[in-house]
Every structure is written in C-alpha cells, then in structure tokens.
Amino acid sequence: MKKLNKLEAIVWNIALPGFSQILSGSLIKGILFVLLEITINVNSNFNEAIKHSFMGDIPAAFATIDYGWLMFYPCLYMFALWDAYRTAMPEDEKGSFLPFVFGAYFVTVGLMISSKVTVAGITPGPVFTPMLFLLPGLLFGYALKRIVFFSHN
Known about the structure:
Blueprint: H1 6-15, H2 19-23, H3 27-44, H4 46-54, H5 58-64, H6 67-70, H7 73-88, H8 97-112, H9 125-150
Helix pairs in contact: 1-7, 3-7, 4-5, 4-9, 7-8, 8-9
C-alpha cells in the first residue's frame, strides 16, 4: 500500500476518479469509482460533448449531452477527489470536505444553467460553464471552512 501525498492524490484523481484509490491500495473503492465514472461518462455522452466544446461547436455539445446522466458527474468526481485528499492527509483536517462539497454544488449549478450563461457575448457551453463555476465553489467552501472551523479556536 503506497501512501500518496495530497497533491499526488488529487492529480491522479483529476486524470480519472479512482486512480488514487487504486494506487494507495484501496482496490475495491478505486475500481468502483472508475466503473461509475465510465458508466456516467458513456451514458451522458460527456467525451463527445468535450470534443465538440474544444472544437468550438457549442451547439453540438449541447445537443450531445444527456443531462439526466451528467448531473451525477460533479458529485462523483468531487467525492473521489475528496476521498483521495482525505486518505493522503497525515492527520484529520477539520472541514476538509467543504471546498469539495461546494465545488460539486457549484459545478452542478453551472451545468444546469449552462444554456443561459454568456461571457462576453459567448456561451461557454455544457463543458466550460461548469468548469467556470468550480473555482467560486472551491473558494466559497474554503472560506466557509475558515469561518466555521478556525473562528472557534
């Protein structure tokens, strides 16, 4: 069983949810995350939408997405990241879950409203809009963590 540092754990799980768990020896959990990621990805047509988005064909990305499936993705993705991060911590870090939870919430909201969002007259689409919502979600969660857990010390 390999002990990963927090950065290594996060980066491997950004590549594919479950990789960090597999590397650290949690095979069942890691394989479950990988299988869930593949199931959601395939059924939501996410890779096809990513391809269209990066090629600049946002209308095709919108037409490709199955929102019923893709709505599961942010929570799975952020939970797998948090699990890898938590497992890599040398000791319990109070409130470490908050940035991940609010990242998932904000990305989900970004996905739901992606057809209504424009930035400088451009619609970023169902792939880039949720990505734009991640940073505010992480920052909100981190600020809440600081307020709740550090104001009581």
